[in-house]
Amino acid sequence: xxxxxxxxxxxxxxxxxxxxxxxxxxxxxxxxxxxxxxxxxxxxxxxxxxxxxxxxxxxxxxxxxxxxxxxxxxxxxxxxxxxxxxxxxxxxxxxxxxxxxxxxxxxxxxxxxxxxxxxxxxxxxxxxxxxxxxxxxxxxxxxxxxxxxxxxxxxxxxxxxxxxxxxxxxxxxxxxxxxxxxxxxxxxxxxxxxxxxxxxxxxx
Length: 204
Description:
single chain, alpha/beta, four-stranded mixed beta sheet, 34% helix
């Protein structure tokens, strides 16, 4: 029986605003999970580490961006590059589970994530956090940028993602629960179940 090829890719994204490098392996169970994440935004690094750890992915992600202007470019371009890496690593999506949903708690916070690796990008983002929250970390990470990250990621990855805060007051807890929830849902959805394409169209 032939061994299945590891779903591993490298992606680079260079613009006048950012330089992004991503190395992703979806099959960390076979390679050993590892992460090396540096975006210049410590809180964002912490969130991406949650995505890697709880998704069971090996992830190396480096961003050099114009943080002196704003963190938006770095966060959005990280999402675009990581989404592109996911799409390439999944290839034709043969045998994947495709759908997944989960609710993840973190202390007083509870966040639900449901996703479909459908090839049709869509984001429903309902964490309902106040618009005037103070930034997190130094350099500062605006909590509203999490939505921009997920929009960029789902657009490039071709994933339909629904994220909803069930409850929670602490913004750190809510955001961390959301990244962990997406991580666990992705971990389940990319799992290989058989050898067929999970669509009646025969293509995703």
